[in-house]
Design brief:
alpha+beta, membrane, Ig-like_dom_sf, disulfide bond, glycoprotein, Myelin_P0-rel
Length: 252
């Protein structure tokens, strides 16, 4: 009877030692899930919500992924996507028809893609992964999504049209004005010689044109009278005749 009690005690000691060795050498596996803290997108674009996980146990059919959403205005999280061997996208609500599964459990990926992002999608998204027997660690991770309005982009063709119809004519007009300022047109009267405003040319003298017509086919006597006429004209122009004074005329 005594030997049976000693045998039971020895058996309990062996089991206890075995459990202590397993606790030290065989720790419980832990799950780690990670995702970016912030994701930015533009309204109307497709945005990827990345989620990765590490596990010491191979992913099996018992492995599951859940995505939940909490609005930017606050409130409780709302589960909208579930994966367990197959993807179960939302069938109603604001995410209906807009969630695409991009994960691959064998590679430790549990990402999804949100199509046609809108401003109402702003908020916090939580990725939860379970892969028994990994029951410890951090099986969840959160990402804050910010969707901004789309800014209209200016196409290159629009810029080219603007340059062609506005800037180019302005540049041509500016060059033309600079050319007129730097190179003014020459006056035709200057090409024929400059005359002072108070200067009187022989062509402007009274009677010059009449005398000039008689220069052709003149005799010696005519040339003498012509000279006398020129002298009398300029003497009379320089000094007017006094009253009662007459001019002597020579005869040939």
């Amino acid at each position: 009877m005594v030997w049976r009690q000693h045998r039971i005690i020895r058996l309990n000691i062996v089991v206890l030692l075995y459990l202590m060795v397993c606790f030290v050498l065989c720790p419980v596996s832990a799950m780690t899930v990670s995702s970016p803290a912030e994701v930015h997108s533009v309204r109307g674009n497709a945005v990827t919500l990345t989620c990765t996980f590490t596990s010491t146990s191979r992913a099996t059919s018992r492995m599951s992924v859940d995505w939940s959403y909490r609005p930017q205005t606050g409130g409780p999280p709302q589960a909208f996507f579930h994966f367990s061997s197959l993807a179960f996208p939302p069938q109603e609500g604001q995410f209906n028809g807009r969630v695409k599964w991009l994960g691959s459990p064998a590679r430790g990926e549990a990402s999804i893609q949100l199509l046609n992002a809108s401003l109402s999608d702003n908020g916090t998204y939580t990725c939860s992964v379970r892969n028994p027997p990994d029951v410890h660690g951090s099986p969840t991770s959160q990402t804050v999504l910010t969707v901004t309005p789309k800014v209209p982009a200016v196409r290159f063709s629009d810029v080219a049209v603007l340059l062609a119809f506005i800037l180019l004519p302005s540049a041509i007009i500016t060059l033309a004005l600079l050319g007129r300022m730097c190179c003014p047109p020459r006056d035709k009267s200057q090409t024929q010689g400059y005359h002072s405003p108070i200067e009187v040319t022989p062509e402007d003298e009274p009677g010059f044109m009449q005398i000039n017509r008689k220069e052709k086919n003149m005799t010696c006597c005519d040339l003498y009278f012509l000279d006398s006429d020129y002298e009398d004209y300029y003497i009379h122009k320089e000094r007017p005749l006094a009253q009662g004074e007459t001019m002597a005329v020579s005869q040939c």
